[in-house]
Amino acid sequence: KDTTHSDLTVKVTGYQWKWGYEYMDGPAAGVQFLSSLSTPRAQIDGQAPKDEFYLMEVDKPLVVPVNKKVRVVVTAADVIHSWAVPDFGVKQDAIPGFLRDTWFRADKIGSYRGQCSELCGKDHAYMPIVVKVVSQADYDKWAADQKKAMASATEDPNKKWTKAELFARGEKVFSANCVACHQANGKGIPGTFPALDGIPMVVNQGVAAFWWLYGEVLTAQNVTQADVTDVMRTAAGL
Fold first, then answer.
1. CB within 8 A of 17, min separation 6: which ones?
2. Model-level pTM?
3. What structural domains does the chain harbor?
């Protein structure tokens, strides 16, 4: 495989159980985000009918321009994963501590789907990949919109948050990072993952104590202390 002379380079990082994307060059240079399964929990739990793309849909797809050579540099943050998209003939193992690369070129606009193809833990089946191929003009607009959104996401430390805003933030963080282990009801899995429901540490001092006692949040390395605070406040109804 010859990954030289690419039009675009994207770094892909595998996590349990999601993908991280970072654009290294071009109009989207500096744009980075996490891409997580977006299939509703009701479908997974058998409480709602499954749709066409059950377990193959994400909240944020990888977006690339059509007819461009895309170099993908792959690694992992925890265990071995594998970034695989059959329509592109691409399968590259993601190994912690190593950078490995591959490439693809999509000649048709549309959405292409894949998934982690290396057994990586209990939610391996919940780690899909979606690549959205768009025109160059749409890609340039998307890149500009992403940079604008990233700039506006910088929070004012003096902002006063409403209870509704904090609840929304906590729910978003929990759904993307915590529900796989601690469960949708916050009860956890006895003997494996502790419950968050009713946990007494719900203020900043408590979060600091949590980190001192238990260290970083196991498989959710990308979750910040601010994120955990949002979740704890939401769980406690504060």
1. 37, 116, 120, 121, 123, 124, 126, 127, 180, 219
2. 0.73
3. 8-152 (2.60.40.420), 163-236 (no CATH)
